Amino acid sequence: MQNIIDSFEHIPSWVRTLILAGGITFFWIIEGIIPLQKFNYNKWKHAGVNIFFTLTTIIVNFALAFAMAMSCTYVTTHKIGFYYWFDIPLWLNVLIGVMLLDLIGAYLIHFLEHRVKLMWLFHIIHHSDTTVDTTTANRHHPGESLFRVIFTSIAIFVSGAPFGVVMIYQTLSAVLSQFNHANMFLPKWLDNLISWIIVSPNMHKVHHHYKLPYTDSNFGNIFSIWDRLFRTFKYKEISEVVYGIDTHMKPEENSKIKNLLEIPFQPYRPATKD
């Protein structure tokens, strides 16, 4: 286990980028073979917008990686956080560390983005996609990426996770986000089974329904336990899910990069309910 942690601690930036690109490519191919929904859209044009935001996410994350690295160095040096509190097997310590990083660095910040108006204005960009597929996973406004780095750093102090464990978490987070956004068909029984452990494609796509209360549900990224534990889990037949956000359903608002970048600085629009 320690060898795995050490490998991830020293993983080069180009390898992390390759994993991200490889995940998108893999699920892109799977989507073409077994699509969940047959969208009437230009897949390449749609991907172009989302890849732009993927690149901005990568740039922001790389630029702010020092904050997470410094946090890891501090907690490791001063032995702060859960990682140092109990004498338990290393594999269990890593699992709990990844779970705490997922709870605070993904679930909690995601929940807050739906509750705090300023954060929501940045998060709208992700929800405005009306044809959700694997490229939607990293469709985040640069400002939202900043929020997530801050909360990941907080999670590092709570968990005490060393840098290698944080890299394991971020790798799992990226790949599983691509998985649960992918427009691919899974048998209902299999999707339901998966959703008891990790966030499945159908479970997350309910979150992308264009109207409340479903938009404010299923906030998890890796582990589905948080939505069930905190009662934010909702179920909706996937055939009834309509992607997008009701306040920004016009193509000129949800598919133009310039407008998407400007949304956080435009007047707030209240959402409606089903």
Kindly list the characteristics that best describe this protein.
single chain, 274 residues, mainly alpha, 60% helix, globular
Describe the protein in words.
The structure is a single chain. By secondary structure, this protein is mainly α. It is 60% helix and 0% strand. It contains 13 helices and no strands. The chain is globular, with a radius of gyration of 18 Å. The termini are far apart. The relative contact order is 0.15. The model has no long low-confidence stretch (mean pLDDT 92).
Task: Report a brief summary of the structure.
The protein is an all-alpha fold and 274 residues long.
How does the helix and strand content classify structurally? mainly alpha
Helix count equals 13
Gap from first CA to last CA:
48 Å
Mean model confidence by pLDDT: 92
The percent range for strand residues is under 5%
String of helices and strands = HHHHHHHHHHHHH
Element layout with pairings:
Blueprint: H1 2-9, H2 13-33, H3 43-63, H4 65-78, H5 90-113, H6 117-127, H7 142-159, H8 163-181, H9 188-194, H10 201-207, H11 225-229, H12 251-254, H13 257-262
Helix pairs in contact: 1-8, 2-8, 3-7, 4-7, 5-7, 5-8
